[in-house]
Amino acid sequence: MDAVNPTPEQLQKVLADTPKDQPVVMLNLLRFRDRANYKEEAPVRTGREAYTVYMEEAAACVKSVGAEVIWSGRSVGSLIAPPDESWDQVLLVRYPSIDAFMAMIESPEYKGVVKHRTAALQDSRLVANLENRM
Description:
The protein starts with 7 loop residues before the first helix and ends with a strand. The chain is built from four helices and four strands. It is α+β, with helices and mostly antiparallel strands. It has helices at residues 8-17, 47-64, 98-106, 108-120, and strands at 24-32, 68-74, 89-95, 121-130.
């Protein structure tokens, strides 16, 4: 099942299950469309090109909540995964808290740029992670 955007139920569950006083690292696994699929008229772009536009425009939103991209790279293959699962890009973004993440995705500025992400992606995973504090 392809998944691009979280459902309200998924957001509420993660919000309820995540401590509010700890940084959260979001693992993004991304598979791009060959051609971006915008709902409105837009320049012809590949999915990767549309995601690049998204990253450029979302950078201010990320920074405004105190978050940062801590790693980004192209995936070259999976050693342990279902045979038909593959990802084009992997991204790690650290947020000061789950509330900071929610503030970003609910902001009018972010809502104005997320269209590029939606158009770019064929499939994705967004996994919230707490840093290990042993």
